[in-house]
Design brief:
The complex is a heterodimer of chains A (112) and B (185).
Chain A lengths: L2 H9 L10 H26 L3 H23 L10 H6 L2 H20 L1
Helix pairs in contact in A: 2-3, 2-5
Chain B lengths: L5 H25 L2 H22 L7 H27 L2 H19 L5 E2 L6 H8 L9 E2 L1 H19 L11 H12 L1
Antiparallel strand pairs in B: 1-2
The chains are: A mainly alpha (112), B mainly alpha (185).
């Protein structure tokens, strides 16, 4: 079960984008965004940061980590996807919802 | 408010409903050989399309190359439409499952503030967050908000985990128009 997910995660640090096909690459980037969103949600929730500050801190960390991953680890040719912003925007709603949900649950658990 | 297991419980219930919907879709659509072969063909078509886009051709072969790209785009769109139509078969049962799940949650958690919000929701999100909560409900959320967030995020996660999702189109009409404008210049 979840063979595809396991396979993608095993490739996430070993391969570059030129060694992966299009569909696998986009799915891998989606999961990386989800993992970063959960981690950032936990960090922001645990530290008790609220409001717009929380959103800004989360956006900053997310952008930095994702950009580092796409440029230095997986080495994606961002121009062929319409730029870094297009890569970030892809499935943006689901990733943002995951972040908000994690933020709310961790904040409620430790600060309410 | 104090720590309570009710908020994570709502998320778990919502996940179970999401899994149930995925199971229904699997029964009606995903397990059919036509859907599986359409998915394999679509993945292959997308990868071939990307290879075509990367290839550099001389002026003599340009028209033929553009025709190949256009044919690939049509094929991808057609395969995606066929897969969407297959999924539509389970749409009514999925809606019934969501409705039933929502009723179960409402019966158990209606009127209870389950989570503290670390931000002030605005507009329609405020209405969803505070709906049904007794009292002022300032910076608190009920089951509906958590259910909506879980559905919004985890439906796609579940679909991808079970390898049932429809791969995304590598082109958009907006991108194509942008490329056409750039070529005209």
């Amino acid at each position: 079960m979840f063979e595809r997910f396991k396979s993608l995660m095993s490739q996430s640090l070993k391969r570059t984008s030129s060694q992966m096909n299009e569909v696998d690459l986009l799915e891998l980037l989606y999961w990386i965004k989800v993992i970063i969103a959960v981690a950032v949600g936990l960090v922001v929730g645990l530290t008790g940061i609220r409001g717009a500050t929380g959103h800004l801190v989360a956006a900053g960390i997310f952008f930095f980590v994702f950009s580092t991953y796409t440029t230095r680890v997986i080495k994606v040719d961002e121009d062929s996807y319409g730029g870094r912003l297009e890569l970030l925007k892809d499935s943006g709603m689901q990733v943002y919802a995951t972040f908000v949900l994690t933020w709310i649950l961790s904040y409620t658990a430790f600060h309410s | 408010m104090g720590f309570s297991f009710q908020a994570p419980l709502v998320v778990i219930y919502s996940l179970i409903i999401g899994l149930l919907i995925e199971l229904v879709s699997y029964y009606f659509a995903y397990r059919s050989p036509s859907y599986k072969s359409a998915r394999e063909s679509l993945v292959k078509a997308i990868n071939e399309y990307k290879q075509l886009k990367k290839r550099k051709v001389d002026i003599l072969s340009k028209k033929k190359h553009e025709k190949s790209i256009s044919d690939a785009e049509s094929r991808i769109t057609s395969l995606q439409n066929n897969m969407q139509k297959s999924k539509f078969k389970s749409a009514i049962v999925n809606m019934a499952a969501m409705f039933f799940g929502f009723r179960v949650l409402r019966k158990k958690f209606a009127g209870i503030a389950l989570a503290s919000l670390p931000f002030n929701p605005i507009g329609p999100i405020k209405k969803i967050a505070f709906r049904g909560i007794a009292g002022s409900g300032v910076n608190q959320a009920g089951f509906m908000f958590l259910y909506t967030l879980t559905n919004l995020s985890f439906r796609k996660h579940i679909s991808l985990l079970f390898n049932n999702s429809i791969p995304k189109s590598p082109f958009s009409n907006f991108q194509k128009k942008l490329e056409e404008q750039q070529n005209l210049q």
